[in-house]
Write a structure and sequence with these properties.
single chain; alpha+beta; 6 helices; 4 strands; 17% strand; globular
Length: 166
């Protein structure tokens, strides 16, 4: 199987509330230890900016970044990284309940992914994987107004959770 296909196949989990998939992280064979180090917070900002650039290029309103939703997303990424929950959407209903406590929202969705690329490329790889997946893309282009993004690391692997609400 060509390496260029692996990010799409192994990076992503189903983006609807139901269903989970798992797999080995996508490895970056060219990752060098001299690559610039990017913090998880910077990756969250990079992914948010990439999503909003995509939305604006398609004539869609950008997502407002919600710090409360980001903390909820961040905790799910931490739980996956620490193997307290399997990679995927386990606990989605609890995250929805937590987002509901933040405000009056009527619909919710979530994208999750992981990869093993250098920190300076990890958010870009996650974004590209989301765009290449019809279900994830539907959330990126959806009628949501707010988002929260959380990134956590375990070893060389970065876990991404993006929560959407309207």
């Amino acid at each position: 199987m060509p390496m260029r296909i692996l990010p799409l196949i192994l990076l992503l989990a189903a983006c609807a509330p139901a269903g989970m998939t798992s797999g080995a992280p996508v490895r970056d064979p060219s990752a060098a230890s001299a690559a610039p180090q990017v913090s998880e917070a910077e990756m969250e900002a990079q992914l948010h900016a990439a999503v909003n650039r995509r939305r604006q290029s398609r004539g869609l309103a950008p997502f407002a970044f919600d710090t409360g939703m980001a903390e909820i997303a961040r905790q799910h990424s931490r739980d996956m990284a620490a193997e307290r929950v399997p990679f995927g959407h386990a606990g989605f209903d609890a995250r929805v309940a937590a987002v509901r406590r933040l405000g009056r929202f009527s619909s919710f969705a979530e994208n999750v992914g992981f990869n093993d690329f250098a920190s300076d490329r990890a958010a870009e790889v996650a974004f590209n994987g989301f765009v290449q997946s019809a279900g994830h893309r539907r959330n990126l282009d959806g009628a949501f107004t707010r988002t929260g993004i959380g990134v956590a690391r375990s070893g060389r692997t970065y876990y991404f959770t993006q929560v959407f609400a309207r």
